[in-house]
Design a protein that fits this description.
single chain; alpha/beta; two-stranded antiparallel ribbon; 12 helices; globular; binds ligand FNR; oxidoreductase activity, acting on CH-OH group of donors; flavoprotein; FMN
Length: about 375
């Protein structure tokens, strides 16, 4: 049972620290360097204010959206995270069941601690048991050292019934000093040699090393586009020009993201670049955003600045650590209920009704 004093996502975060080994907790929570970007992601959501509209007719309204041909109960999905078993022995299986129960899309990481097939089975079984339509499942791809290995992962995702491929492009140069606890591994990559990894923070240089030489380029996106007929979403875009290039190379959607502040410090927050990117995309592709979503009003703020939907990262792990599948379902319910209230307070019958006119910031106060 969920303790009665857990009411918000912050309550889960406060408790989660007591449910995980210290090293895993630090790994999950941390950002790059001085963690300025990590903090700014959240601070910028907090600084933005929503402008409610009263007495609007909300009859027949709903939080549901259709995204890339898929139905979502609300404009949010679960972001891809590596190794959910760091938080709970049931790991991704618990998250997939909770997401299926709540009609929430889940993006499964290449670095999941159960196989993508096991996760898909858990999701579909939960939907069946509850008599619900299957919830969208997307597979997040980290390109492997050779294309045949990447293609093999994509084919496995297709065969397992995944609905879309998310290519993460912002983390190929990321360094981490974290060592996985015994018994937790990248289940999808079992038996494969690990990717070129040189060094950790403060370690050897990048240029002239395999890390740079093997790093993906736009050619790889073009290759991936012809390797699958599934919708293709590119994750980790911060420049409007890169959003345009992604679309030119065949992306059906982009995820505006600084990887939760984990890759490099000093990057823009997703919210600060979102309006420019949404304008550059101009409706030609779906625009998603992640980094710092911690309550339902944050979803409304992201939509106001041009997103079609958001992804939620670390809160999955907080809920999973504290209360397993029930905790994740609870967090999804909290977010959905908070978002629903926000949408109604803004006078919007549908998520699409939320616009720039619904937010003000310290600069343009009230105008
Ligand atoms: C991530 N993220 C990530 N992204 C991805 O594409 N593949 C991955 O395997 C991972 N793994 C991962 C592990 C952990 C512990 C974290 C915290 C993050 C990034 C993730 O998808 C997302 O961009 C951020 O987590 C969003 O920020 P919030 O919601 O955590 O603030």
């Amino acid at each position: 049972a969920i303790p009665a004093d857990i009411v918000t996502l912050a309550d889960y975060e406060r408790r989660a620290v007591h449910h995980m080994p210290a090293a895993s907790w630090r790994h999950i929570q941390s950002g790059a360097d001085r963690e300025i970007t990590l903090a700014a992601n959240i601070a910028q959501f907090d600084a933005l204010q929503l402008l409610p509209r009263v007495l609007a007719d909300l009859s027949g309204g709903s939080t549901a959206i259709r995204l890339l041909g898929m139905d979502l109960a609300a404009p949010m999905l679960l972001a891809p995270l590596a190794y959910h078993r760091l938080a709970h022995p049931d790991g991704e299986l618990a998250v997939a069941r909770a997401a299926a129960a709540l009609g929430t899309g889940m993006v499964v990481s290449t670095l999941s601690s159960f196989t993508l097939e096991e996760i898909a089975l858990a999701s579909r079984a939960a939907s069946r048991e509850l008599g619900r339509d299957p919830a969208p499942l997307w597979f997040q791809l980290y390109l492997q050292d050779d294309r045949e290995r990447s293609a093999a992962l994509v084919r496995r995702a297709e065969a397992a019934g995944y609905d879309a491929i998310v290519l993460t492009v912002d983390a190929s140069l990321k360094r981490s000093g974290f060592t996985l606890p015994a018994g937790i591994a990248a289940a999808n990559l079992r038996g494969l040699p690990s990717r070129s990894q040189t060094g950790i923070a403060g370690g050897p240089i990048l240029f002239g090393t395999p890390l740079i030489d093997a790093a993906p380029t736009w050619d790889d996106l073009a290759w991936l586009r012809q390797a699958t007929t599934l919708p293709l979403i590119v994750k980790g875009i911060l420049a409007a020009d890169d959003a345009r290039l992604a679309i030119e190379h065949g992306a059906d959607g982009i995820i505006v993201s600084n990887h939760g502040g984990r890759v490099m410090d000093g990057l823009p927050t997703p919210l600060s670049v979102l309006p420019g990117i949404a304008e550059a995309v101009g409706g030609r592709a779906a625009v998603l955003v992640d980094g710092g979503i911690r309550q339902g009003t944050d979803i409304a703020k992201a939509l106001a600045l041009g997103a079609d939907a958001v992804l939620v990262g670390r809160p999955q792990l907080h809920a999973l650590a504290v209360a397993g599948v029930i905790g994740v379902a609870h967090v999804l319910h909290i977010l959905r209920a908070e978002y629903e209230l926000a949408q109604a307070q803004l006078g919007c019958r549908t998520p699409a009704g939320i616009s720039r006119a619904h937010v003000l910031d310290a600069q343009n106060g009230g105008k």
